[in-house]
Amino acid sequence: MGIQITFDYAAWAQQFPQFSSTVDEAQANIYFTIATTLHRNDGGGPVSTAATQTQLLNYVVAHLAFLYSGTNTQPAAQTVGRISSASEGSVSVQTDYGNNVSQSMAFWIQSQFGATYWAMTAAYRTMRYIPGVCGGGGSFGTGLLPWTYPNGIG
């Protein structure tokens, strides 16, 4: 059902030029390997087109690059979450994720790339109805099964 892709550094670097001076091909390949533990890339996930799978994994790589390497104009992230309050005398900053943010979502909304990935994968984070899988009725035969993967989305 799913699809497996290989990482194309040149295409990724063209899509995300803000990482051109902070993430070389070797580092991007390491981020891609990590990305495949967060987003399934073994051919068994629900993503059925190479174009979609490529975009999703490219956004995961960009999210990791932003968190750990920074961009051409901004160093790697040092704070986690949104700034909820700040003061100037003796410099104090407090961060949080805001209301109604799940632990899964919290990781992704640390960057615009992760937030985009989170939005793009909304359709894959839902329960799927598979008729007849659990029988024909009764307390165990509803046909409803959660569609889950051991190593993340997609």
Characteristics:
two-stranded antiparallel sheet; alpha+beta; 4 strands; 154 residues
Short characterization:
It contains five helices and four strands; from the N terminus they run αααββααββ. The protein is flat and about 60 Å long.
Element layout with pairings:
Blueprint: H1 9-15, H2 25-38, H3 50-68, E1 82-87, E2 92-96, H4 103-108, H5 112-120, E3 128-129, E4 144-145
Antiparallel strand pairs: 1-2, 3-4
Helix pairs in contact: 2-3, 3-5
Account of the protein in words:
With 154 residues, the protein is an alpha+beta fold. The protein has one domain. Helix content is 36%, strand content 10%. It has five helices and four strands; from the N terminus they run αααββααββ. The strands form two sheets. A two-stranded antiparallel ribbon has the order 1-2. It has a two-stranded antiparallel sheet with strand order 3-4. A hairpin with a 4-residue loop joins strand 1 (82-87) and strand 2 (92-96). Helix 2 packs across helix 3 (50-68) and helix 3 runs antiparallel to helix 5 (112-120). The model has no long low-confidence stretch (mean pLDDT 82).
Q: How many DSSP-defined strands?
A: 4
- Secondary structure class reads alpha+beta
The pLDDT mean sits at: 82
C-alpha Rg (nearest Å): 19 Å
Distance between the termini: 11 Å
Order of helices and strands: HHHEEHHEE
Strand order of the largest sheet: 1-2
Report the helical percentage. 25-40%
